[in-house]
């Protein structure tokens, strides 16, 4: 069973925390991790791109010149794809890019992402943030004390002061423990979790 240090907001180690191997110590499945990332990005796509085919472009009803005798190649319409202003070959149309993953696949992908952070030494556990007020400067100091720059910060529940304090930090994202996903875990260099958040994640996924 892996263990990590628990730090306070001053960056000092206060205790050791044993991690549940069924969540933070699984065999990493890179295929499912990749699929989970593609799944999230695909589900977020609007799919509203559209262009006109030759049948939808206006004009071009008359043959531009006679079939023979002009010296030009034969043409049937000025709206063919090779003409300026013509239609698009295989034009993109609005579509739904989303696809589904099984629940067990999603869970294993998430566990694999969490395990990778532990193995890379990129999981930082904090006892609590204790933000009494909304203060970006104070939150930035806490991250500096933890020696963290770009971070995905996870708290057990939505902590308004933490969320609003981190809003103006471009390389920081916050989330509650029930909102975490593979993409955000991998996108940011360090995963910062409160002790309560670790317990909540273990309770759900163990």
SSE diagram, text form:
Elements: E1 3-7, E2 13-18, H1 21-24, H2 30-44, H3 103-119, E3 123-126, H4 136-145, E4 151-155, H5 160-166, E5 172-176, H6 182-187, E6 190-194, H7 195-205
Parallel strand pairs: 1-3, 3-6, 4-5, 4-6
Antiparallel strand pairs: 1-2
Helix pairs in contact: 2-3, 4-5
Brief description of this entry?
By secondary structure, this protein is an alpha/beta fold. It is 34% helix and 15% strand.
Your description of this structure?
With 206 residues, the protein is α/β, with parallel strands linked by helices. It folds into two domains: 3-46 and 99-205, Ribosomal protein L4/L1 (Ribosomal Protein L4, Chain: A), CATH 3.40.1370.10; 50-93, no CATH class. The chain has helices spanning 21-24, 30-44, 103-119, 136-145, 160-166, 182-187, 195-205; strands at residues 3-7, 13-18, 123-126, 151-155, 172-176, 190-194. The protein has a six-stranded mixed sheet with strand order 2-1-3-6-4-5. Helix 2 (30-44) packs across helix 3 (103-119) and helix 4 (136-145) packs across helix 5. It is elongated and about 90 Å long. The model has no long low-confidence stretch (mean pLDDT 92).
Order of helices and strands: EEHHHEHEHEHEH
Assign the CATH architecture of the largest domain: 3-Layer(aba) Sandwich
> Hey, roughly how much beta strand do the residues contain?
5-15%
Q: Give the CATH level 1 class of the largest domain.
A: Alpha Beta
Principal-axis shape: elongated
Q: Helical percent range?
A: 25-40%
Count of discrete structural domains: 2
Describe the biggest sheet? 6 strands, mixed
Query: Cα distance, first to last residue?
Result: 13 Å
Using the CA coordinates, give the radius of gyration.
Answer: 27 Å
The whole-number mean of residue pLDDT values reads 92
Kindly report the name of the CATH homologous superfamily of the largest domain.
Ribosomal protein L4/L1
Structural class: alpha/beta
The count of β-strands is: 6
Q: Could you list the spans in which at least 5 consecutive residues all have pLDDT below 50?
A: none
CATH topology of the largest domain: Ribosomal Protein L4, Chain: A
């Amino acid at each position: 069973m892996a263990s990590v240090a628990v730090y306070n907001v001053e960056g000092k180690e206060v205790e050791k925390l044993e991690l549940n191997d069924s969540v933070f110590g699984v065999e990493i499945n890179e295929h499912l991790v990749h699929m989970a990332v593609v799944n999230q990005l695909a589900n977020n796509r609007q799919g509203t791109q559209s262009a006109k085919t030759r049948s939808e472009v206006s004009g071009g009803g008359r043959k531009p010149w006679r079939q023979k005798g002009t010296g030009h190649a034969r043409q049937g319409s000025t709206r063919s794809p090779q003409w300026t202003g013509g239609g698009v070959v295989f034009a993109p149309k609005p579509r739904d890019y989303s696809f589904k993953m099984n629940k067990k696949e999603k869970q294993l992908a998430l566990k694999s992402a969490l395990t990778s952070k532990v193995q890379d030494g990129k999981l930082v556990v904090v006892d609590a943030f204790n933000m009494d007020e909304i203060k970006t400067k104070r939150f930035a100091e806490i991250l500096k004390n933890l020696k963290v720059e770009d971070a995905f910060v996870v708290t057990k529940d939505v902590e308004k002061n933490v969320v609003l304090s981190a809003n103006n930090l471009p390389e920081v994202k916050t989330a509650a423990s029930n909102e975490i996903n593979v993409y955000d875990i991998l996108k940011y260099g360090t995963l910062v979790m409160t002790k309560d958040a670790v317990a909540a994640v273990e309770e759900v996924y163990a």
